[in-house]
Amino acid sequence: MAFINYVIHLAILIGIYSIVTFSLNLAVGFTGLLNLGHVGFFGIGAYVSALLAVQGVSLWISIPLGALAAMVMGIILAMPTTRLKGDYLALATLGFTFILGSVARNWTDVTRGALGIPGIPKIVKGNTEFLFVVVVLAVVSYLAMWYISRSRFGLTCEAIRDDELAAKMLGKNTFAHKALMLGFSALFAGFAGGLFAHYITFIDPSIFGINDLILMFSMLIVGGLASVKGSAIGTIVLFLIPEPLRFIGFPSSVLGPMREMIFALILLLILIYRPKGLFGKVDFS
Asked: How far apart are CA 276 and CA 285, in angstroms?
């Protein structure tokens, strides 16, 4: 029974993080925006939804509002940053994540700082029922993001990624397309953050941590850029491969560093032998 509960727990996390990976792919893979602020959008969705829910707001309202808050913040962030290129964009969006983490730690009247927010209600009581909800919402999210990526808007974003100057010469508003795609990316990241908060039932400023950001990009790189299938496969691979370590009996002080070593080895092998990832259409470079 304990093993079944563990498998269900793992499946729930894979479902939530697969939404995160695909939403990151919208910005990075399909549009070419090296956005290191994605974990910030995830955290915004989690915090807004949690703060509303503990005040008695319905979960079916608080989670969408958290996602919308992340989308608005994504579009606001896009205004000064999407005109930047490459490393400059990455640094600007990484700074955004650090700012959010600082706000979560220091705005104690609202966020309770390092104490975090406990007692976040679950969507449903049992984990089996929660898994069903996550699977349904993940499928709906995937279909929505797939539609966005294959729409005329999404194809224009791919053209901007490949040759922004040519897209401008064809009369495309590249700034508006990049800003809106970053907004859509943030929307689904915030939605996943809300699901995560209502599953874990506790969040604190560590949700804005660099470790989660590394995990998100690792799943993206392994699965491959601009690949719908890769977003799911990359998430599954990065979650499942280190899991056998839990059953070997290593102490927790060793388990964490070993997981990081495995992640690093997987990334190194992928970047050397499959620069596009397992199913990617675009070279990460």
From this structure: 9
Residue pair 207/42 in contact by the 8 Å Cβ criterion: yes
Give the Cα separation of 23 and 18 in Å (integer). Answer: 8
How does DSSP assign 136-156, residue by residue? Answer: HHHHHHHHHHHHHHHSHHHHH
Separation of alpha carbons 120 and 281, rounded Å: 40
Provide Rg for the chain, Cα atoms: 18
Q: Is the pLDDT of residue 138 over 90?
A: yes
Nearest CA among 51, 76, 49, 74 for reference residue 60:
49
Token readout for 152 is 């005329």
- Token pair listed for 208: 């804005």
- Among 102, 97, 107, which residue's Cα sits nearest to residue 193? 97
Q: Write out pLDDT tens, residues 189-202.
A: 999 999 999 999 99
Q: Is the entire prediction scored with pTM above 0.85?
A: yes
Question: What are the domain boundaries of the chain?
Answer: 2-209
